User: Which sequence fits this backbone?
């Protein structure tokens, strides 16, 4: 039986390799708040178990078996987040820890039942795609807020919650899925973006780095 620690490593590598071909040892260590030597030891173990390919200079990538495990865990996590928001009365900024605790213990059968109960959603409560039982990931074609020009109006469709401190901050500003925003101004040299939300003239200033955490649909 896989341990929670192994599942966390596999999911972390999956997330890091969504935008790059290899997950660096230092990136994994930073994401999991452990030392690089601890990561190296675990990667040796995972490679011996046939779950990752690891090269010291390049980093790690998942094997087919490792990816299947990561996607199964991600599926459960995102179904749980959707259940907690849609049916259990949680706010989206309250579900991360709860879902992370539960995802390790629910069975595939219960995950399938949750999916059916929720109406077979394609995305979770944060707009992130929910892998199907066979491991396929539905395409979600939203664009990064970082690419939106001043004067444009858009609706927030997805928020990245991998870094919880930044996610919680965005939620505190009211920047959650379904919110209509207008980009008022973008400061030069990677300066902050100025936004307003529908029904309010109050200006919201967010750092360039945070605009990359939000995906939107242009109206």
Assistant:
């Amino acid at each position: 039986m896989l341990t929670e620690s192994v599942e966390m490593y596999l999911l972390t590598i999956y997330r890091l390799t969504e935008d790059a071909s290899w997950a660096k040892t230092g990136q994994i260590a930073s994401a999991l708040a452990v030392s690089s030597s601890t990561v190296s030891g675990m990667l040796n173990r995972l490679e011996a178990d046939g779950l990752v390919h690891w090269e010291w200079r390049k980093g790690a990538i998942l094997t087919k078996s490792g990816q299947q495990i990561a996607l199964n865990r991600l599926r459960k996590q995102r179904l749980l987040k959707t259940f907690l928001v849609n049916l259990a009365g949680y706010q989206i900024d309250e579900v991360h820890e709860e879902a992370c605790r539960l995802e390790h213990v629910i069975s595939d059968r219960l995950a399938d039942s949750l999916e059916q109960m929720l109406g077979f959603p394609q995305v979770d409560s944060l707009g992130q795609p929910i892998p199907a039982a066979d491991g396929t990931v539905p395409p979600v074609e939203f664009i990064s807020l970082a690419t939106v020009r001043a004067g444009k109006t858009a609706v927030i469709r997805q928020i990245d919650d991998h870094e919880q401190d930044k996610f919680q901050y965005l939620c505190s500003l009211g920047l959650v899925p379904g919110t209509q925003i207008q980009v008022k101004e973008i400061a030069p040299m990677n300066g902050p973006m100025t936004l307003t939300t529908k029904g309010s003239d109050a200006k919201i200033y967010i750092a360039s780095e945070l605009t990359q955490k939000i995906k939107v649909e242009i109206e």
